[in-house]
Amino acid sequence: MLLLLLLGIGSAPPGLWEVQDLLQEEPLLLLLLLLPLTAAHSLGEIGGASVSPPGRDCLGCAKTGSGKTAAFVLPVLQKLSQDPYGIFCLVLTPTRELAYQIAEQFRVIGKPLGLRDCIVVGGMDMVAQSLELSRQPHVVVATPGRLADHIRSSNTFSLSRIQFLIMDEADRLLEQGCTDFTKDLEVILGALPAKRQTLLFSATLTSTLQELQSVTMNKPFFWESKTRTVDELDQRYILTPEKIKDAYLVHLIQTFTDQHSDWSIIIFTKTCKDCQILTMMLRKFNFPTISLHSMMKQASVLRTVETQKAFPKVRFANLSKFKASVYKILIATDVASRGLDIPTVQVVINHNTPGLPKIYIHRVGRTARAGRNGVSITMVTQYDIHLVHAIEEETQSKLKEYEVEEKDVLKILTQVNVTRRECEIRLEATDFDEKKEVHKRKQLILEGKDPEMEAKRKEELEKIKKQKKKFKERIQESVQQQQAEQRERNHLKKKRRLEQKKAKLESK
Ligand SMILES: Nc1ncnc2c1ncn2[C@@H]1O[C@H](COP(=O)(O)OP(=O)(O)OP(=O)(O)O)[C@@H](O)[C@H]1O
Ligand SMILES: [Mg+2]
């Protein structure tokens, strides 16, 4: 009861009494339950379910910024402290940046236990990672591609004794999006013991629930928050023609930076190219801007794992500079939309309306975290209105219009558009598109695919699609023709019948 009073909860949510019993034996969970975050008690339930004997699989679907990381870090450390060995726990996550962030949380909370962790992500020295893995760290935090590569190519470590498999942003890991993790996950799951606990987390789990349940085994405990976005988030939109978008953006940033010196802003763009051009453009306007996208320089001059951890490469370096508020504006693609926890972010601007509501939920979730306030502003063109409706339906909230003085925007319109064009020309001179092609080829090779074969396959698919479309059109045409002929026949029949009737009547 004391616990309930401390949490300020009137009536206990289902399962909490069981958790209280459990707390007698599991004091670390008390820490989680007593933390003042709104979702903490629910996440405490997840923690409770996962450490209570015999330990259930869990699916945790809670809002962005509600502390899901602690909900798996604490139970793992709780169990690890009873029987420490390596490799005890594997955490999978879709992006490299997120892997570093999660490992950091394990490191901070697990320091008194002498926790040893290992980060296994792409773009880093594989030999150094291999060495670290062979030293049997307690926790491995990995992105699927690189870990699968290690499993395929090395026998110096084993995942056969792990007790916990955690998938953070599990729906992203299991969906077949632009980066498809299916093959790598098959390799990884094949290396894990059948007897393990699987904990899956995301702010948007429900759409992929069936796939998720196939990964879990022992009657998963499912916790889902009722709403998708947090109350502290002020969700706004600006309806704007495509051509005026950038002028609105510059005006918004100017207003925010004039009014607040301690605010950070994340701007999400649709493509790497947009991200690059906007970064160049905002820099021309002297805004402290930095970018994050998958086309950024991957080469690292730092070889050892220790130095890589401290300053791994451009992408990480840029993120660190933004986190440290050296730069106040981060322009990013969706590579930064999930999981990143940067408390200073007060504003999220969607330069394009996200095509899927769940992308919107994760993007705007980069602000208003852990009970703080935040604003999200989505740029909407006349062609995106249906997307906003879909977002409103999924989030069960209404986006309000963000009031802007249009005349102030129009004043800077020409200057902004000219600057953008200059940046586009400068970027074209750097062969950005060609580099993108090279990058794509490299990705395919890394995925074990032949770029030429893939190009042919794509071409053939396009051909088949075109043929199908033509075929469909022809069928439609002939159906329409048949229908028209039928209508004509019916009309003639009717006409003939009427004439016969008329003739009969006249003869009478
Ligand atoms: N119980 C708590 N009380 C207060 N702050 C907390 C609590 N638990 C976690 N936090 C803090 O809340 C912030 C958000 O936590 P976290 O990154 O785990 O959120 P999340 O639920 O994983 O969000 P997302 O869906 O975006 O990944 C972190 O800065 C974390 O330190
Ligand atoms: Mg998270």
Automatic annotation (TrEMBL):
Residues 232-410 form the Helicase C-terminal domain. Residues 490-499 have a biased composition (Basic residues). GO terms for molecular function: ATP binding; hydrolase activity; RNA binding; RNA helicase activity. It comes from the Eukaryota. Residues 473-508 are annotated as: Disordered. Keywords: ATP-binding, Helicase, Hydrolase, Nucleotide-binding, Nucleus, RNA-binding. It catalyses: ATP + H2O = ADP + phosphate + H(+). It is an enzyme of class 3 (hydrolase). InterPro entries: DEAD/DEAH_box_helicase_dom, DEAD_box_RNA_helicase, Helicase_ATP-bd, Helicase_C-like, P-loop_NTPase, RNA-helicase_DEAD-box_CS. Its EC number is 3.6.4.13. It is found in: Nucleus, Nucleolus. Residues 49-223 form the Helicase ATP-binding domain. GO terms for cellular component: cytosol; nucleolus. Pfam families: DEAD, Helicase_C. Belongs to the DEAD box helicase family. DDX49/DBP8 subfamily. This is RNA helicase.
